[in-house]
Amino acid sequence: MTVTIRTLVGASLVLALTGAASAETTITVATVNNGDMIRMQRLMPDFYAQHPDIKVNWVTLEENVLRQRVTTDIASKGGQYDVLTIGNYEVPIWAKQGWLLALDNLGADYKQADLLPQVAAALTVDSKLYAVPFYAESSMLMYRTDLLEKAGLKMPENPDWDFITTAAAKMTDKAAGVYGICLRGKAGWGENMAFITTMNNTMGGSWFDMQWKPQFDGAEWKKTLSTYLDLMGKYGPPGASSNGFNENLALFQTGKCGMWIDATVAASFISDPKESKVADKVGFAPTPTRAGGSNHGNWLWSWNLGIPASTKKADAARTFVAWATSPAYLKLVAEKEGIANVPPGTRTSLYENPEYLKVAPFAKMTLTAIQSANTAHPSDKPVPYTGGQFVAIPEFQAIGTAVGQQFSAALAGKATVDQALAAAQTLTAREMTRAGYPK
To answer: May I ask the CATH architecture of the domain 139-298+376-439?
Structure first.
């Protein structure tokens, strides 16, 4: 019998045929093209040495494409993939649909109790894990310490958007190719809307009121979008409406960004002298809030490995998932790539390891951001949903992307603030009515 494991990883379709020629089982793994997932593929010889009877095919995709493909496949029971890279948005929704296998028994060496409680809770339904975290993150402000000093400024303990605007202006040197701030502009519910939604939370806004009425016609959303477009229009890089996480990471690493507000997982990449030209000039601070506010809007996200209920290779898939998210895998990364580069945010023991804390200046900020993310009450206002950078309802994936397209168009100069917000209000109200809200 031959079984193949495929992996979905991001921007390109990659078939990892490096398993032993005598492999009995091939599985297909779908994953996103982020750095930690690419690193995992380089470390597959360790997996094959332990499991010569399993071969892994990788499908690597950009995250918007990944989300679309795996959602379509699992909803239609297509069975293309044996392991899925999915977020903590999808896991509870899909588990309740019966689309994912429970993953409670991954072996005595797996140490499930070591998983960070906040991260594990987001993947648990009826006391069972339905996916396991490969890495987890919150959001924070990353900045160039040298440019801030040159501007004559000092980063506050709790920065607000007024300070960010001032700092972005003083850091910007377009003639030198340096931009004061880089933020997500690429349309998508998990791309630009991940950032803009949390920014709106910091402004005191919300997606919906308690009757599920969209709130894009409110003052908070106007303040949010106006501030975002003003920052990016004056102090952001050209072509920002096409930039997502990976594009901004590359800009920061090459010294073109003064500040970047995004996922904490980026910290190890911008601090790595082998990958970043500014590794020794990086500082970290909480995600900004509004002046006088206390809601920093920091999100909680994890990229997780789950097994679709449609797979016919569950045992091999479970073996791979256990290996890729185990304490032994973190040790492997530490040995091969350096301990600062282990996938962050998943295990308590990592943040108790003095060796990691010594070489990872971002570790404490990352842990604090993850632990303080208030996904149960993301807005200062009463709201009928949970989330953070998303609204935890099935309809959000389509609605969030549609709104993201409106805001990305505004960033590209194709719509005004008022036009983009009016379109967002109309389309969201229409789709929520079609879906039968309020329920």
So the answer is: 3-Layer(aba) Sandwich (3.40)
Residue 5 pLDDT grade (very low, low, confident, very high; cuts 50, 70, 90): very low
Give Cβ neighbours of residue 257 (< 8 Å, ≥ 6 apart).
Answer: 144, 178, 179, 181, 182, 237, 248, 251
Angle at 272 between CA 268 and CA 278, to 5 degrees: 110
Residue pair 300/138 in contact (Cβ under 8 Å)? The answer is: yes
Burial of 127 (0-12, 13-18, 19+ CB in 10 A): exposed
Report percent pLDDT > 90 for the chain: 93
What is the residue extent of each domain of the chain? 5-137+301-350, 139-298+376-439
- Token pair, residue 254, equals 């090459």
Q: Count CB-CB contacts under 10 A for residue 221.
A: 23
Domains 5-137+301-350 and 139-298+376-439 share a fold: yes
Q: Please write the tens of the pLDDT for every residue from 366-375.
A: 999 999 999 9
In whole angstroms, give the CA distance from residue 90 to residue 88. 6
What is the average pLDDT value for the chain, to the nearest integer? 94
State the residue for tokens 């903590």. 88
pLDDT digits (tens, 9 = 90+) for 40-97: 999 999 999 999 999 999 999 999 999 999 999 999 999 999 999 999 999 999 999 9
For domain 5-137+301-350, the question of CATH label 3.40.190.10 is answered with: yes
Paired residues of 245 in beta bridges:
none
pLDDT, one tens digit per residue, over 228-269 is 999 999 999 999 999 999 999 999 999 999 999 999 999 999
pLDDT at 301: 97
**pTM for this prediction:** 0.89
